[in-house]
Each structure stands twice: as structure tokens, then as C-alpha cells.
Write a structure and sequence with these properties.
333 residues; alpha/beta; Rossmann fold; five-stranded parallel sheet; four-stranded parallel sheet; binds phosphoric acid mono(formamide)ester
């Protein structure tokens, strides 16, 4: 298995992985603008659909949720999305499973497949774990966040949130849809799979991404992740250029060895009312959660009129419904 907490490496956009089940989503690199559009359109269709009709979509299909890291939003939304289409779900977490006794991810996956699981949703602290699981089981695997690598369903729900605010219809989505849009992603970029997936996805649709943060949380190499991504150390300058601002929490659980003056950090990088009102009064404020109030964002901003944080959670349910339906039905819309 790949190393835990490996640093982000230079990335190249690879083609979809033919050895995986085509319903898998392990990386946003597997998303062409056409596939992104089809997921968003399907999310719209399923959201608008009569609940009784929707409830027949995945009747008695079996979904395993394999969560080896804590989660509130992702786990609950995948589970509720599956249940809204009448799939049966089972949750396996590290503390209550044979992973604790040393069983490998591959053997866990094969066991779940033997028990009838038809799709596995995996959150893991290990970068690359969903690739291993998809290859070793042949089942559709949906990456629910792997270490410091990727969080593709989060990037899709963030995209749906942005499109709604920009008034862009899913059916019209193409590689130029976000031309002229600048998105600042500010905070702990180094440890963030959300930053990585967004920075890989948004430029495929024409957006420009600014990574913003201090050097310990944002090494220079991060700008090489792909086209359309640059680094800005000064948050105020970055805010002036951006229509969308995505704040990230500092991932204390992954900091290991990095030291940070938190008071200085707040002074320079906190999204607070005064700063947002002065520099980005019309920007949409986003955050994947969990938010740490008073650290990267104040309550005034998190609960304020520019905040899309609660909406993002709703879009997560819609996107994950579409991903599950595609994974289990093979249908695109
Ligand atoms: N955004 C996100 O992944 O949140 P959870 O860790 O609560 O799932």
C-alpha cells in the first residue's frame, strides 16, 4: 500500500484507468468535462425526481462503507444517498473490524465482495488505497478521501455549489464554463486532499486557482500540480482577485513535526468579517468542513450571508447519489 501522508507530487493528467470498474471514482483525473457534466446532470435528475420513483433506483443493491478515518459529512451523505434509493448499506470502521487484527485492505475488500457488496465507498488515511481496492476487488470503488491525496466527491459537490451561484446549468458545462473565474483556496494546502482535487478539477473547466498560505502549509512545489494553479502568499491580495474563496482548516492530526505560530497565522490568513467586507464583499465563501471557528474562519463569516458552507453539505448528498447510481447501474443519466 502507498505510504501514509505522502506529500503531494507533481501530477500529470492520466486517462481513465481501464483496469478499474468503470463506475469507480478514485481520482478527479478520471473525470473528463463530459463525465463531470454527466454526473452533475444525473444529480439534478435524481434531486428533482419523485421520492417514490427515486426509491426504486437501487432497490436492495448492496453498498459497503469502509471508513478508516473519522467523517461526518462524507459518511452520512453517502449513507443517506444510498438509502434514498433503497440500497442496503453496511458500515465498517477500523475500530470494530478485523483491520485492527492486521487484515489487509485487499483481504477486507475480497471479504466484503464475498458477502455480496456490489460497491465500496472507502475513506482511508493511506494515499492510493482506493486504487488498490478497486484493482483487487474489481468492484466499483468510490474514493471518500485517501490520506493527503484526493477527495473527488468533495470537488464535485464544490463544483455544483459554484455552478448554482454562478447560474451555470449542468447541461451547459464544458471546458470553458468557468473562464474568468478565480478561486482562492486558503490554508493548509499541503495536507489537503480537498485542495488537490479542486485544483485538478476546476482548471479543466477554465477556472484559475490560487493556492494561498504560509510556506510550511504550502510548499512552492504545490504550484506544479497542474495548469491554471498559482501561489499567492498574501491573503489580502488573493482575496481582491477572487470571486470564490475556499477556506481550509489546519489538519492538526497530520501536522507531525511542523510548527506554526497560530496567532500570526490568524492575523495573516483568517477569513474574518472585516477582511472579507473590505476585500471580497461579493465573494462566495466556501469550506469543506469541519470548520474550526475562530481559527481559519470566524463565526461572523461562516454564518454570514456570503457563506455557502451549509449548501455545500446539501450538494454532497446530491452528488453522492449520482455517483452511487452510476457505480451500480452503469447508467450515465
Ligand atoms: N468534507 C469532509 O470530508 O468532511 P468529513 O470529514 O466530515 O466527511
Amino acid at each position: 500500500m502507498a505510504q501514509k501522508n505522502t506529500a503531494p507530487a507533481r501530477s500529470t493528467r492520466a486517462s481513465t484507468q481501464p483496469e478499474f470498474h468503470p463506475g469507480s471514482l478514485v481520482s478527479v483525473r478520471d473525470l473528463t468535462p463530459e463525465r463531470t457534466r454527466s454526473i452533475l446532470q444525473l444529480a439534478d435528475t435524481l434531486e428533482a425526481e419523485d421520492t417514490f420513483k427515486r426509491a426504486k433506483r437501487l432497490l436492495k443493491r448492496r453498498v459497503a462503507l469502509l471508513f478508516y478515518e473519522s467523517s461526518t459529512r462524507t459518511r452520512t451523505s453517502f449513507e443517506l444517498a444510498a438509502k434514498s434509493m433503497s440500497a442496503d448499506t453496511t458500515l465498517v470502521s477500523s475500530l470494530s473490524s478485523s483491520i485492527e487484527k492486521g487484515e489487509s485492505l485487499k483481504d477486507t475488500g475480497i471479504t466484503l465482495r464475498s458477502l455480496g457488496a456490489e460497491c465500496i465507498i472507502l475513506r482511508s488515511p493511506f494515499s492510493g488505497a482506493p486504487y488498490l481496492l478497486a484493482k483487487s476487488t474489481g468492484l466499483p470503488v468510490l474514493n471518500a478521501g485517501d490520506g493527503m491525496h484526493e477527495h473527488p466527491s468533495q470537488a464535485l459537490l464544490d463544483l455544483r455549489t459554484m455552478l448554482r451561484h454562478l447560474g451555470i446549468k449542468s447541461a451547459k458545462l464544458n471546458e470553458n464554463s468557468l473562464k474568468g473565474l478565480t478561486v482562492t483556496i486558503c490554508g493548509d494546502i499541503f495536507h489537503s486532499r480537498v485542495a488537490r482535487s479542486n485544483a485538478l478539477l476546476l482548471p479543466t473547466l477554465g477556472a484559475r486557482v490560487i493556492f494561498c498560505g504560509p510556506t510550511p502549509l504550502l510548499p512552492e512545489v504545490a504550484a506544479t500540480i497542474g495548469p491554471g494553479v498559482s501561489i499567492e502568499r498574501d491573503f489580502d491580495s488573493s482575496l481582491k482577485q477572487s470571486q470564490i474563496v475556499m477556506m481550509l482548516r489546519i489538519q492538526a492530526e497530520r501536522l507531525a513535526g511542523l510548527s506554526l505560530d497560530l496567532e500570526d497565522y490568524k492575523l495573516r490568513y483568517q477569513a474574518n468579517g472585516e477582511r472579507i467586507a473590505a476585500l471580497a464583499p461579493n465573494a462566495l465563501i466556501m469550506h469543506p468542513g469541519p470548520i474550526i471557528r475562530g481559527m481559519e474562519i470566524t463565526s461572523e463569516v461562516a454564518d454570514g450571508p456570503q457563506s455557502a458552507i451549509a449548501e455545500q453539505v446539501h450538494h454532497g448528498l446530491c452528488i453522492r447519489r449520482a455517483l452511487l447510481f452510476q457505480a451500480l447501474s452503469g447508467e450515465r443519466a
